[in-house]
Amino acid sequence: MQRKRILVGKTGLDGHTVGLQVMSKAFRDAGYEVVYAGILLKPSDLVESAIQEDVDIIGVSILSGAHLEQIGLLLKLMKEKGLDDIPLIVGGVMPEKDVQTLKSQGMAEFFGPGASIPEIINRVDEIVEKYSQARSK
Amino acid sequence: MFKKEFIDRYRKKKEEWEKNTVNPVLKKMPERYPEFFTASSKIPVKRLYGPDDLEDMDYMEKVGFPGEYPFTRGVQATGYRGKLWTRRQVAGLPTPKETNKRLKYLIGQGQTGLNVVFDMPTHCGLDPDDELALGEVGKEGVPLYSLEDMEDMMEGINPSDVSMSIIDKGTVTTAFYFVYAEKQGVDIKGLRGTTQNDMLHYYHTSYHHDTPLKVNLMLLTDLMEYCSKNVPQWNPVSISGYNIRESGCSAAQEIAFCLGEAIAYTDLFLDRGMKVDEFAPRISFFLNAHNDFFEEIAKYRAMRRMWANIMRKRYGAQDSRSWLMRFHTQTAGSSLTAQLPYNNIVRTTVQALAAILGGTQSLHTNSFDEALSLPTEEAVQVALHTQLILTHENNVGSTVDPLAGSYFVESMTDQLEKEAWGILEKIEEMGGMVEATLNGWVIQEKAEYNRQVYQEIESGERTVVGLNCYQSDKKPEIKLFEHDPNAEKEVIGRIEKLRLKRDNEKLAAAMRVLEEDLKAGKNSMEATMEAVRCYATLGEIYDLYRRLFGHPKAPDVLFM
Asked: pTM of this prediction?
């Protein structure tokens, strides 16, 4: 089976990189091909990379509190570019009501404090599978 | 430290103790681990420390007296008996006006120093209406884009009455403060405070995206040069081990990375033509207080001794004030858990105690809700009162450096020092801290440390109460800080108005002078202050830097 490709990065000016680094390694160890887009990105940069790299999933880490604006814009741009058949997962800290708001806008899953690496990987495997089945229909 | 005859007698006794007393106990009850280590630097910790561990130590040379070289026992001769540490809680709320209220509240609650943190666009030299600033305005600190914002934030607070700490870099936000003081009729010669300005750490730790590193190093040197002449009680740089540690490293690495940076800056200031004793007394440090109680205490003591040695022996500083490592401490934010947040009060208390026993000059204690959001006023009160209780009820400041002479603490101090010198040597071999930062080595070291810690947490080898053991299913019901969704718009509206109402011709003239000074390589501080007096915005000044010197590059990440 072909290795799944995940694009990871941080949009906005948030410099908290530990979660991104740890998860990048975890995805690699779990057999994903990790495309590291970096930090300090505009949402439009990340969408552009997703198109060029032809990835199966996008993962963003955000801890700055700017999630409604940053992730909201990212989801909007993904729709506009026809990327809404690719799941977007987000890790970091956000209030439950914001998680619901962003899920209603298309965010596939959110992982907050306490989510363990095996839990995240299992859930991400499921999501990737679900989206790829939906695409092949 | 002891006579040989005594040590021989002690060793013999110790062997008997191991045989007759320890071994039977071990048979009945083995120790919990085959080996014990410190939590971060992984220095082996023995079962027992005694006189034999300090056999070769020259007490006068290595420990000495408080207020005297090598300052292992602290920079103040009388410790906290004369003056307590400064209680300095960080504040930075979504608007300057809200921050003003919080600062006044903290002053009313017994705080003696101000400590202001800015939002990310401010750190990155962007105005709030910049595309990159979307959603970031006022989120991680106070938005401070012009003199007007400083005036709102400081309204009713007299700069002569407080010591101000500006958690930012370069010259601009500090110029906002100096000009504000000037307008209040305060002589800036008497201003007390600190600008963080640790340019290398912004590159390998906080990833601020503003100007290329060389421009930042130039601005740092400008501020140092300006302050040594005009604002002699200001600390133009505070080397930020706190942030370095938070982004992932050990206590020994925290010491080495900080001192590596301090050496790099010292060389820079000397290159500018300053004399070491003119600026060294104004170099300050900002350190972390993490979880391993004794390792942290030993860290402060070891580092103080190392800095004194570097300044005196390596740089030949004559003025004893140049040898002092003065530092602010913050308890470790990364040790807080979102799960069972009240546990964080306990973590913070013990960390604060380590900082005090290590001789900190000032202290920030974290609020228990900070793994979840900006702290509420109630949570800030608990944090500040933690310090007040330690001060007034636990009586910990009644004697100087109470742990000196502890066989364990003195041994650990020596071992951390040895470990840190080793790392520092590696940095020197690479060509110094600027090189070690630019080539990605520091980032890599930290990524490796983080990987290890997370592996230990996942495997259960490292216990975090309430996180990977003793968990609770109950979600805590605590009140969280809520952001006003209109705050960003309000801030943008204000700056738009400001750009219309200020004297734009006068400003343009001031900006031309600044541009000429920058191009000519002259110290830019006077010209920056003049532009600030004309209400130049932060983004406008940084745009000038970017136009003249180019854009920054995000650091290469090599951890994969």
From this structure: 0.91
